[in-house]
Amino acid sequence: MRQVTGLTSTYSSDEFGICSALFELGGLVVMHDASGCNSTYTTHDEPRWYDMDSMVYISAVSEIEAIMGDDDKLIRDVVSAARELKPRFTALIGAPIPYMIGTDLPAVAGIVEEETGIPSIGFPANGMGLYTKGISMALAAVTERFAQGETGRSREPSMNVIGLTPLDFSLNGTAESIWRWAEALGFRRGACMAMGSSLDEISRAGEAHVNLVVSYGGLEAARILERRYGTPWIAGVPFGKAFAERLGQLVLEAAGTGGREMAAYRSVPRAGAAGRDPAPNPARDAARGKESPLLVVGESVYSASFAAAVELELNIPTRVLCPVDTEDVLLREGDRRTPEEDDLIEAFRGAERVAADPLFRQLVPETAEFFDLPHEAFSGRIYDRVNRNMVDVPLDGFIFGGTKAPRGKGPRG
Amino acid sequence: MNQNALKIAVYGKGGIGKSTICSALSLALAERGLKVMQIGCDPKADSTMSLRAGRRLPTVLATMRERKDDFSLEDVCLEGAGGVICVEAGGPLPGLGCAGRGIITALEKLKAKGVYGRYSPDAVIYDVLGDVVCGGFSMPMRSGFADRVYIVTSGENMSIYAAANIASAVRNFGERGYAALGGFILNRRDVENEREKVLALCGDFDSEITGELPLSEKIREAEARGKSFMELFPKSEEAECVRALSRAIFT
Ligand SMILES: Nc1ncnc2c1ncn2[C@@H]1O[C@H](COP(=O)(O)OP(=O)(O)OP(=O)(O)O)[C@@H](O)[C@H]1O
Ligand SMILES: [Mg+2]
């Protein structure tokens, strides 16, 4: 059945993608939605909620306000809250109710800005889009609005990381590992969009020599910086030794020559392709005999980087299945979009090896080997215990430590 | 998109003659060599019928329901008389769904598919359903769509009342940067003191009668024959009225 998720979970929504991307930037973030929706976000999608202050609110729109299209109430509430809290910006986020009644949030934001003098952005989210779209909208809007003005390149080479949120990367140290990798290449830390950087740092994003796009959500922002400052971008996450090295080379080249924009993994030949024969390794060679590819499920840049790392290092063929928003430029040939649960069920038929969020186990044949890649945007905190920073996990150990995964079992330690 | 393109939205009470006037105006602008696009924003999807000899076009929303995003502009933008590009937003069945939301979705989809760049029209006319009864019907006057709103009215009280409502909405939306009121179009029903009544309405909104059309047998006849009177009676007084209107709107 189309557009039905009967056996697994659903991904986080566009609303929450926006909240997540804006969480650390000092803005007054208001979801224009019925009271209660905030707790969905804070409970399932925001691991920073208890440890970090952020002005994320819900407007608590009522039935009668919705029917009467009472935008004035929203405007008054936001204006008075903004006067009190003095945020760096305000963000008004759409949800199912304003979507259905056609609330023009960009126009409402314009009025709020007029009245408060605080930069205000209206987001036409509707709660039906995916978090990937939300992150993309939010980072693009922040970049468009704040990363402007004349600026030269920093004296030392520096890098921005764009598209980093707990929804795709959790709080398991991946962010820090990416920065360490960048520093080892000789880059100074630029802005991170959007974990660990202030709005001021982001507004100087034009100084960086190169942008590393680590998820679909960062692509649009990187394109804006490319148009505005001519900054090249490279997409990829430095998983595995060999792929991290290759990604590093491409990033250095791009930073040096202002070279070409691309997803680093797209240049990785498929496993088994001629001309590549890594040194003998019994475990790997045993695996190589198998024809069935490792299916990697998840966000495109994350999954395709991971897949490329596995191919380069272990010479195991892979295929990425991407259930969330992406573009062809962020997938390798042969990778697929699988927006529907049915697409995945079909793709899993006969699969022998799958790396995916543990909740997908329900769909995978019992005989298949299953590798846990918990994805916060899909299963929230359920698998926190097994959610590892994959940049630091040696791939051999990960893949060859996989187990047959019987259905219905909870997370393994 | 042609930067100086004329983008207008035509509103007015149900049945007052919006679609008749929009189609005639499209043809009058096309006569002047302009590339015109007429977008019907009404679930009835009958705005462009007289430009297409009564042939229906696949509406944007029906096409979306069937094919999601998997269609091209050519599937929903069809040429009609005078080379006018005809588009119908469409909408749910009467009594179901949400027509207003439908208008928003259809116009956003057209924009996302780059309709204004692809056809680069010199004039875009949005023909909008009856009264502005919910958020969706203000879509054509939101930023990025029409720049000016024209309201069709006769001297009948109900029509003037509806026109005043719409004009107030336009005024209230002023602070949002929506379209401005361009003026009123008088479509005569020959009621007593018709002109005076409409002029009084204009006074209330600091506006004017931009153009005017007589109550006409020819217009009825043309409708019965499934064409615009501009095509069937190009030399008529009625056609001249529309040409004058077209010059008043777009010099
Ligand atoms: N000036 C006129 N003289 C005679 N008949 C007219 C005139 N203007 C419009 N009509 C007729 O009035 C009827 C309604 O016109 P039309 O469909 O253009 O109105 P509308 O405002 O678009 O209606 P709706 O609100 O239903 O979309 C049609 O039969 C049309 O031929
Ligand atoms: Mg009509």
Notes on the protein architecture:
The complex is a heterodimer of chains A (about 425) and B (about 250). With about 425 residues, chain A is α/β, with parallel strands linked by helices. In chain A, about 40% of the residues lie in helices and about 15% in strands. Chain A has a 6-stranded mixed sheet, sandwiched between helices. Chain A has a 5-stranded parallel sheet with strand order 6-5-7-8-9, with helices on both faces. A 4-stranded parallel sheet of chain A has the order 2-1-3-4, with helices on both faces. Chain B is of the alpha/beta class and about 250 residues long. Chain B has one domain: Rossmann fold (3-Layer(aba) Sandwich), CATH 3.40.50. Chain B contains 10 helices and 8 strands. In chain B, strands 3-4-2-5-1-6-7-8 form an 8-stranded mixed sheet, with helices on both faces. In chain B, strand 3 and strand 4 form a beta hairpin. The chains are: A alpha/beta (about 425), B alpha/beta (about 250). At the A-B interface, helix 5 and helix 6 of A face helix 4 of B. Adenosine-5'-triphosphate (ATP) binds next to helix 1 and helix 8 of chain B. Magnesium ion binds next to helix 1 of chain B.
